[in-house]
Request: fold
Amino acid sequence: MELKTIKKIGVLTSGGDAPGMNAAIRAAVRAGFYYNLDMYGIYRGYEGMIQNDIKKLDSRNITHVLERGGTFLKSARSEEFRTPEGRKKAYANLKAHGIDALIVIGGDGSLTGAHLFYQEYGIPAIGLPGTIDNDLSGTDSTIGFDTACNTAIEAIDKIRDTATSHDRLFFVEVMGRDAGFIAVNAGIGSAAAAILIPENKTPIESLIEKLKSRTKAMKTSNIVIVAEGGKSGSAQEIADKVKKFLPYYDIKVTILGHLQRGGAPTSFDRLLASKLGVAAVEGLMQGKYDVMAGLINHKVVFTPIVKAIVDDKKVDEDDLRVANILST
Ligand code: ATP
Reply:
């Protein structure tokens, strides 16, 4: 592959925001300055690329952003970028600014867009896994996942206090439409009675049996973690079914929702985002295009975007086994 001389890099965040995106932007921009490159912020993801919402960044733009949740570049979902016409406009704007490479921070959709754009226009692009869902291959953890798990656990700990005080059964819905990573991590970390994830369909009968056996074992509070969009139904739907079989339980449902996206990134996410931000700039300079930078066993690894988005990252079977042992 031809090694292009890169002078101007555009950075954008796209899709759902995730804690640590700011830290990743900051690291990429700082690394760019270190290597005497011009760094551009593309605001509101691909939408801003199409609407020419692009500004040259200086060091003031990245002061005190590392510790903040969200993304100061803002994020968006862009329907227009899915069309060839939209991408053509985006390319014209990049050309007008002289931007010759891209760092795209986002989830699988955002990285798919980066791949397509590289295929069509040859603009070198590196993706960074920025999503709380942890559903990208080529990295042990995505930026924001650790913070989201910590936020969920902190919230569930509080729910546990009220559940114990009233002998209640709580169904807590966490994020993760197609992937149960947050549910499993937060479920083990909060001593959940059961964890229902999109990857598995848990028969209602086995859940009820488990709750009954826990009653016999004098477990006074029960928290069931439900990943949103699971095959077994929403937390409310499952709670309604369980109520019919266990009418003596005082059942409550809590949906953690968007609070899982917010907040200051954990030290883990700050380190991950910082390493990957630097890796993105260095990777582009070394001619690594159309790849996602990730961290595997603490080492930076570049994986072709097509592989990172297509490979079906699975919840660790051993985590599920441990969760089962600990909740029995
Ligand atoms: P999250 O995991 O938080 O949902 P995501 O990056 O997967 O993040 P998406 O909404 O799937 O979020 O994608 C973000 C944006 O990426 C889309 O709004 C669109 O602009 C672009 N995109 C996604 N898929 C494609 C595609 N197939 N072709 C072109 N652009 C795409």
